[in-house]
Amino acid sequence: MGVVKSAIGDMLMTFSWVVLSATFGLQTTEIISAAGFQGIAWAPLAITTFLIFVYVSIFTVVFGSASFNPTGNAAFYAAGIPGDTLFTLAIRLPAQAAGAAGGALAIMEFIPEKYKHMISGPSLQVDVHTGAIAETILSFGITFAALLIIIRGPRRLLAKTFLLALATICFVVAGSKYTGPAMNPAIAFGWAYMYSSHNTWDHFYVYWISSFVGALSAALVFRTIFPPPKPQKKKQKKA
């Protein structure tokens, strides 16, 4: 039952994140317009970073230990962080993909027509091999940063969340001209499903294989630098 609850939590969280993250551009534009920040170069990045920080903080409270990124779960497992097993990972991944597909379908169904041109997900901007290399590097970077911040970073939850938001926006900007970017196979699948490209080799190669290779490589590097503590052997009492 614990695994089922985790999978349901992951599905709901991924659904909600896809719906909200798809509107970050729209929300940022509206805030800039309302606050009179037009022409200020740093305003879009600062506002988007703030939005990510706020929503991740809320999601942490609402969804607890749920996750919307299967590569993150796999990376924590590979790094030796207690929590998941191969069995739970196999159950959670399809739930996350289903939640992402539902979120993409929902936002495109209910967003007003005049805003639909502002709603989009990850999409390949370069040739497939360049995209795969980019997604591998980006997934490596964001995963290593997440492990460093969560495991070795500041103790305060708000400080961790802010650093994660800052790291996320940095990698999103870096990968925007290559793969979107996704750095998350579930979310990439959701938008690919929306446009009926989820079953193509290009999608699988760039957004699944490359993302997992990058994330797991980051986990192995992190584990090499910061080995997990060895379990202490219990001393047997002498009869």
Automatic annotation (TrEMBL):
The chain crosses the membrane at residues 12-35, 41-68, 131-150, 157-175, 204-226. Coiled coil: none annotated. Signal peptide: none annotated. It is found in: Membrane. Keywords: Membrane, Repeat, Transmembrane, Transmembrane helix, Transport. PANTHER family: AQUAPORIN SIP1-1. Water channel required to facilitate the transport of water across cell membrane. This is Aquaporin SIP1-1. The lineage of its organism: Eukaryota, Viridiplantae, Streptophyta, Embryophyta, Tracheophyta.
